[in-house]
Amino acid sequence: MVQKYQSPVRVYKHSFEMVMAAYEKRFPTCPQIPVFVSSEVLSEAISNDSSLHVIERSCKLNVDAPRLLKKIAGVEYVYFIQKNTLNWKDRTLLIEAHNETFASRVTVLEKCSYSVHPENEEWTCFEQSASLDIKSFFGFENTVEKIAMKQYTANIKRGKEVIEYYLNELIAEGITEIPRWVPPEQKVPAKPAAPPCDLPPHPTPVSRLALNSLAHSSGKEASNAADPSNPDADKLDAEYIERYLGQLTPMQESCLIRLRQWLQETHKGKIPKDEHILRFLRARDFNLDKAREMLCQSLAWRKQYQVDYILETWRPPGFLQECYAGGWHFHDSDGRPLYILRLGQMDTKGLVKALGEEALLRHVLSINEEGQKRCEENTKIFGRPITSWTCLVDLEGLNMRHLWRPGVKALLRIIEVVEANYPETLGRLLIVRAPRVFPVLWTLVSPFINDNTRQKFLVYSGNNYQGVGGLVDYIDKEIIPDFLGGDCMCTVPEGGLVPKSLYQTEEDLENSDHIKLWTETIYQSAHVFKGAPHEIVIEILESSSVITWDFDILKGDLVFNIFHSKRSPQTIKKDPLTSTPGVDNVQLIEKSWVLGVDYSMVESSLVCREGESIQGSHVTRWPGLYILQWKLTGPASCSSNALPRVDDMLASLQVSSHKCKVMYYTEVLASEDFRGSMTSLESCHSGFSQLSAGTTSSSQSQSSSLVSR
Question: Do 694 and 564 meet the contact criterion of CB atoms below 8 Å apart?
Answer without folding.
Answer: no
